[in-house]
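Quick log. Single chain, no ligands specified.
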Amino acid sequence: MKRLLSIALLAGAGYCLWRQLKVSPAARVPAAPSDELLTRRVQVALRQAGGLPEHLHLRVVDGTAMLSGSVTPAERDRVLRAALSAPGIRGVRNGLAVESGPWEPSPSAP
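-> predicted structure:
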């Protein structure tokens, strides 16, 4: 009797494990966030990092943020860091044009 009960318990446990494995993999794989959601996440990251530059154009395609427009050198670094830090972004394509400011001579050493 004990042996029959042990076999029944093992069979029941095996069935439960089979059902868990059969159903769980699809349920455990999270859905990739939409490009629209990722665009909003990048915009939030940019605002938190100091604001959106006026001439910045942002588009997200398949998890990759595509940046274009005209920015200053300081804005470029800030924008790229913020875009890369947005949750769900897999990469950034940099199409930013850096504005050149007025020429300033470098300080000369005495």
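The chain has a mean pLDDT of 81.
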